[in-house]
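User: I'm putting together a teaching handout on how multi-component assemblies are represented. Below are the sequence lines for each component of a complex, exactly as they appear in our records. Could you produce the 3D structure of the whole assembly as structure tokens, so the students can see both representations side by side? Please keep the chain order the same as the input.
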Amino acid sequence: MRRKKVSPFQQIIVHGFLIIASIVTATPFFWMLVTSFKTPGEIYTIPPKFIPSEITLKNYIDLFKGINFWRPLLNTLIIVIIAPPLSILLNSMSGYAFSKFRFKGRDTLILLILATMMIPGQMTLIPAYLIVRILNMLNTYQGIIIPGLVGAGSIFFWRQFIKGIPDEIIESAKIDGANEIFIYFKIILPLSTPFLITSFVFAFIGAWNSFLWPLIVATDESMYTLPVAVSVIAGQYGENIGTILAGSTIVVFPILIVFLIAQRYIIRGIAMTGLKF
Amino acid sequence: MRNRIWEIILFIGPSLLLLLIFTVLPVITSLFLSITDFNAYSFLDWSKTNIVWIQNFIDVLHDDLFWKAVLNTFYAFILAYPLTIFFSLLFAFLLNREETYFKNFFRLLIYLPSVTSTIAIAVVWSWILNPKYGLLNWFLGFFGIPPQEWLSNTRWAMLAVVALVVWKAIGPNMLLFIAGLQGIPEELYESAEIDGANRWQQFWYITLPGLRPVLLFVSVMLGIGYLQLFEEPYMLTGGGPLNSTLSIVLYLYQKGFKAFEFGYASSVAFILFIMIFGLTYIQMKMRIYQD
Amino acid sequence: MRRKILLIIMILLIILSSFSFSQVKTIKIWAMGEEAKNLNIMAEKFTKETGIKVDVQALPWTAAFSKILTGVAGRQVPDLAMMGTTWMAPFAAMGAFEDLGNYIAKSKVVKQEKFFPGSWETVVYNNKAYGVPWYVDVRVLYYRIDMLKEVGYNKAPDTWDELYDAIKKLSQKYGVGKTGIGLSPTEPANFMPFVWQNGGDIIDKNKNILVKNPEFVEALEFYSKFFKENLVAKGGANVFVDFESGLLPMFFSGPWMVSMIKEQVPKITGKWMVSVMPKKKTRTSFVGGSNWIIFKDAKNKKEAWSFIEFMTRTENQLEWYKILRSLPAVKEVWENPELANDPMTRVFREQLEDAKSTPIVPEWDKIETALGRRVEEVCLGNRDVKEGVELLYKDLQKILRK
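Assistant: Of course. Below is the structure of the complete assembly, with chains in the same order as your input.
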């Protein structure tokens, strides 16, 4: 253990700086929440009011009355429940295979897959849209979910992580007669728990926030996801920023809560990948 | 012992299939589209499309709006890239020190911005940046700075966009750097200490080299990500004012999804790909030389 | 096991999402903005009369054009849609709409003579009628009576010179930048009327480009003068708050603002009024509005047509007016006392006599983008008028030659 004596002065500077940084990162959230409960009279004040003297739920009520809010919420929930588990399943299985399987061309294949990471999403956006249209998946859940299930980056991360699992465990299981499916479910997955949770939370966040792809795939309102619906409302209620921010709050805060609960695992999970670059 | 075919197919098959259909195939299609004049009218009647070979590319390179987008994107990159790395590193150090209290609390708060969707948070930002009623101008007023038009003035608009980008990006990169720092063995520091190295020397000869892999990774990912700048200008300014925040991808989006000139847009995407590939290649070559 | 359950759930959801529960005839309609919010009132009345159900889907204005285009291309369209007048041409050119000629010929309710000529013009493409006008809108000047009185204007500014003078005086009184006129640097509906009032236009019937003509140049000079002298309102919150606070004493907009202003900022009721456009050579304003169209790929065309007939009936046009204050496209509705006796509505009626639409050509979208860009560069950037006009000319050449 390094025993360093740090000057109180240094401590003050460091912590002061950290506090300022935290204020900068946290203020927009606080401001969004507060403004969403303000009446128009209190929103358009100079100087800005931090604590409203009058709290109103009208912004939220208007929101729910406005465009059909529940359907986008349902859509987002469906996507968020279906996509992350499926995508983790696919990506981790592939990651395991690229890490521990032995077959010809294994390493070349992973390199090719990595190469696809370098291609800007927008280059694939237009043709992917056309392909989805040909497959008649426009404006459907399948169309929104399936194209995004597999990610080269995720496969790569899983591969790196599973590399850290000792080969001996797997070998002895094989000697005992286990097949790959058994190994995957009974050995790999349990050993990956923090990383699993981390991946799940990231996938959840990504699915919850997905905007551009659902915006393009949805040809009518029934398929809007929550972020898309919020941007619709921003257009319709251009007059009252309170309503718009109420919409933003609904999109942002559930994620924050999920994140707060899982954050211990996330921080540990990233560190655990070992980052063998 | 080789794995059996069915195992390979089961574990990799679905992923490969999806990648093939939704990534590889689109890339090939995009390459093909870029040499056609595929547009809205072609949608309903494929036969209306013509092959125009490199005409699209010529048109793109002659469009001053495209070059404006390129300039804007690189301007944003030159600002955002060093700022992101600097602050992520800084916070990583500060929040890796033993002597810092409440490390988890600070880490959490600084990571928070990246968790939200740009769409939702951009609205808050534009309200904070409002010239008359916004928090920022009110705050700056205490320092005697007159209210600025952050989003409707060409001087500030891109800076506001960059600020949002960096604000969101610091968190995850900070975590990566922390992981990297923790991966450097204690013994190296201890033996350096014994040899009489001071803190600065330790930083230069142990910490930095130890961080090299992470730095390379972060650097490459930031390059790939920032050149594809889209959501922040799309939400905050729509590309304006006077196209001062028009990024390459935003330009591509406008041409592809508003004017529906898909052939043209695909050629823009291809040009962008070359830029990103080039930048990534350069970065990887640089680091290798340093090794 | 977990995997199997997930698979089953996914399949179920996929099946559910494509299953249609409805047995009753339902027509689907795409609508935007305030109209989408209120259309259900008329829809209910329609359903009571005919038994046909109506399903209104709201599209955001910002993405509506893309959504419709995507829908047309993906062959996922509803039966009906409300279509802005400036969007008729591109979609009609694509063959997205049903030719309504036969329906109109057989109809007792929908006849060309019933509508304002300017409005009917917007549904015709290649000599065929692809839509039926629903409501029209025309832009007029909104102004604060009390503030204009303060600078010596007892009625609205009547000419270009008076318009400039009024806002200049207000700016001197309250401080430069503290008040201004509402002008958009990019919207053609704001800018083009000035060109028309000066006797010019952007292109003519044969697609000749008219932007280098003196009428156009003069109009751009006049328009940009407001920006260059800091007489345009900026940095506010929204139109209503700013109209009330005095930041925005004058602006141009359409009839929908009347009821919205009364609702949002009731405190200034009685302190504001509308007036016809200030005159240069004429007082020409911008006319727009929405038409009903039936998609070529619609599934329930007959039922959709009966909805159009329903909305065209005089009593329903009147009722729609009462809901949203959108001006009826059917002329005889205006004879109703509700419209004939209202002082503000009379202003709109007067303005409708002298109002034009932007050219109904398929390239209008691209023309609009180029126009908006160059006008913005002249107004906000450092472009001078001559340069801006030159560049616009080149832009239009490229667009129209394609």
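A couple of points students might notice: Residues 91 and 155 of chain A are 5 Å apart (CA to CA). Chain A has a mean pLDDT of 80.
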